[in-house]
Amino acid sequence: MNAPDSPTPIPSEGAFPLAGASATDDAEQLIAAQQSGPEERPKVSKGFITLLALGLFGTYLAFVTPIAISLALRVRVLAPDNPEYLGIVLGLGSLAALLVGPLGGQLSDRTRSRFGRRRPWLVGGTIVGLIGLTIMAVGPNVVILGLGWMIAQVGWSQATNVFTTIQADKLPETQRGKVGAITGFVTMVAPVFGAVLGGIVATQPFLLFLVPGAIALLFVLIFVLFYKDADSCTFTFDAPLTAKVALANYVFNPKRYPDFAWNWLGRFFFFFGLTLNTSYTAYFFAQRLNIPVLEISGTVATFGLVGILGTIAGVFFGGFLSDRLRRRKIFVLGSGILFGIGALIMVVAPDLTLLLIGSLLCNISIGVFSAVDQALFLDVLPERDTEAGRFINITQFATTIPQALAPIAASAVLAMSALTGEPNYAILYIGAAVLTVIGGMVVLKVKSVR
């Protein structure tokens, strides 16, 4: 991430809209926020937060349900002898979203429309996502299924990133933790609903993919109908968005944006550790409890249920309290340390009870981190009023890159440990403990946020 920034096109002083009463109000709020700093943004209403939560729930339902169950069921039908195709399809979808996301963010930042900069991309992402789900529903083979998933993931990831960008546009500092807690909660609940829905319509491919998509479309349209996005028709920019500029904007200069860079790096370490911790959960539990892997599913399910409750508790505790205390870094550091403690407890746990306690601590930590770190990265987001979409998509790299690399690293570590006997899954948990603590400590380098 050390490539220098190219000159980035930004709106000129006369770029804000002046046509129409509601557009004028929104433009004046945006100008005032830019001049006085993000802490002066007006508080958003409970209605806005409710609509935002519903919109995110819908997009995550459509986005996560294929990952949680739908894709596995279709691969099972279309290629019953090749379950490894599932990993290939998932990987290609993630790669497509990773490559397209920052471009979509830049285009959103520069969109001129009487409907604003964000709403067209929110609707557009939803439509692309629905097209992808439709292709998946009717696809006669794994190739078409994979193509559909790539299209769907590009669309739904764009829509979810736009919702995050809208939070950057609108939320004052004093509400970011609270809203992060609420949106974190709905994104955790969505996969549960998706799994239940998938189980109900498992034998009907069309419903399996399109019912979640239809729910997402409904909630997105409701949000778009009531959300006031300032008219951006009069926006002007200092330079065109050429291919060279667009590619250069996939990276950023950490010397120019040090707080954003430290937060990015801290998130990278935390998610690398988290992915190490979760990549071989079933195998680790089976080894610790001396139970065959094929018989461990019930134990994993129990841990998962308790873990959801712990994560939800952490989300609300961390998000609401960080807003009240006006502190972020201590919560991020604490979540990293708590995760490390939980992982080490699991490594030395002699029985199921202590293993469960360690797992619960890890999940509480994940909840705290997910709410507070989202608030923190919104606090340090560079060029908030001109390039929020770009930098939010760059932030996603700190999550997706470790999620891609950590399983590869885990496989290499396990292969080396197996040279002297059976694979030692505890090494992964020790590594996860170290990395998450490092992630929390790195965030202490952020200077502009307490």
CATH superfamily of the largest domain: MFS general substrate transporter like domains
How would a crystallographer describe the biggest sheet? none
Q: Domains counted in the coordinates: how many? A: 2
Order of helices and strands: HHHHHHHHHHHHHHH
Which of globular, elongated, flat, extended, rod-shaped describes the shape? globular
Mean pLDDT: 85
Strand percentage, roughly?
under 5%
Low-confidence runs (pLDDT<50, min 5 residues)? Answer: 1-39
Q: For the terminal residues, how far apart are their CA atoms?
A: 25 Å
CATH class of the largest domain: Mainly Alpha
The quaternary organization reads as: single chain
Overall number of strands: 0
What is the CATH architecture assignment of the largest domain?
Up-down Bundle
Query: Nearest-angstrom radius of gyration?
Result: 22 Å
Looking at the structure, the CATH topology of the largest domain is Growth Hormone, Chain: A
Helix content: over 70%
Helix/strand class: mainly alpha
Query: What is the overall number of helices?
Result: 15
Helix-strand blueprint:
Elements: H1 21-36, H2 46-78, H3 85-109, H4 119-138, H5 142-170, H6 176-200, H7 205-226, H8 243-248, H9 258-279, H10 281-289, H11 297-325, H12 329-348, H13 352-379, H14 384-417, H15 426-442
Helix pairs in contact: 2-5, 2-6, 2-7, 3-5, 3-14, 4-5, 4-7, 5-14, 6-11, 6-13, 9-13, 9-14, 9-15, 11-13, 12-13, 12-15
Task: Give a short overview.
It contains 15 helices and no strands. The chain is mainly alpha-helical and 450 residues long. The chain has two domains: 228 residues, Up-down Bundle (Growth Hormone, Chain: A); 188 residues, MFS general substrate transporter like domains (Growth Hormone, Chain: A, Up-down Bundle).
